[in-house]
Structures are given as structure tokens and as C-alpha cells.
Amino acid sequence: MDNPRELPKRQHCPVCNRYVKPSTRYRIYPCEKCVKKAVDDKGHRVGFFNITLDGHGCQGKLLDSGKLTRSRICFIKDMSFEAEEAHFGGIVLRPIPKPNKRTVKKKDSY
Ligand SMILES: [Zn+2]
């Protein structure tokens, strides 16, 4: 069942370029060290946790004040990420494409 040839050989953290564990499901995710540097839109350090002990749900928390936050958006350096419940339990941060990049093709509109 497991085909090792389908696994990516190497995977990097998109923020610092450090090697991370290759994942076929999450091709781009930041390393642990960068996750710890995540801040919210006001620059407060923020972390994300599962809501239940068996690894479901996703709750943001301001690490300095201990306040819960509803936002799942966080920033590491100048990249933005959205936290979500990971498939295997725990939390994964997924990169949000920058809106100012003009990559949208207008082929299908009008
Ligand atoms: Zn990193």
C-alpha cells in the first residue's frame, strides 16, 4: 500500500527554509520554530491548539495574555497563514496566498 516513491524527497519550511518532515497532505507548512514566532495582526504572539483532547478543533490563543482569539489567521515574518485542525491530529498552519500577486486568470470570467 505504501509507495515510498510517492513521498516528496525533501520539504522545506516556507519561512526559514529549514527541512521539515515531508508530508504529502501538507506540502507547505512552517517548521516548529517558525510556528512559535507566529503573531496576530496586531503583533501579539499567538498559538493554536486543538479544542478536544483527542485532537479535534482549532482554537487560537494569545500567548502573552492567555486570551482566546477567534481568528485563525497568523503571520510569520511577512507570510500569512491560517491554522486548521490537522488530519493526523494537532494543528497545521497553511499558507495563505498573497492577494496582491496578480496570478488570477480572468479566463473564466465574462
Ligand atoms: Zn521555519
UniProtKB/TrEMBL annotation:
Domain of life of the source: Bacteria
The protein's name: Uncharacterized protein
Organism, scientific name: Pedobacter cryophilus
